[in-house]
Amino acid sequence: MKRTARLATDPPDTRKHRGHSSDRAPLTAPHTIPARSWIDPAHFGRLLHIKIVASRDGTAVLTMPFLIDFAQGSGLMHGGALVSLADTAVVMAIKSLVPPGTHFATTSIETKFLYPVKSGVVTARARVTAKRQNRFYGRATLFNQNKRPVMEFRATFRMAKDGPTEKPAVKVPRNG
What we know:
Elements: E1 32-34, H1 43-47, E2 51-56, E3 59-65, H2 79-95, E4 104-113, E5 121-132, E6 135-143, E7 149-159, E8 169-171
Antiparallel strand pairs: 1-8, 2-3, 3-5, 4-7, 5-6, 6-7
């Protein structure tokens, strides 16, 4: 059987993707994502194997294992995976303070990488540092398995003006 190479400009195949089959939802937007519970990582967080250890009173502790899929070219944990863990941790800290269904999104982040992650489980410790009008501010520090700080993270989140919805769900807008 002859195989043809796909070009970057070819449209994505919406049915064939690791872990997806044709009987599931297509991979392209728009999607409505029902939440399993209010304090729970979204689908992307579950893809990264993020686990919530605690989330209460404006703080959160989350963990994520260093899997081979999260490695960058030289074998260290990819910075994007670490940022995703930190962002999710601050989100869970915020969710511990707001009513279920409250809409908010990350609007800015600042990241400082301190030490490379080479193996093990990374732990994120996050807290909400302030709330002003419709904005939340938060910080997270990530630690390697030896409890050494590997990343510092600060972020701003903006709450939507429409307030909470009845069902926690995210609608991804259609591109175009």
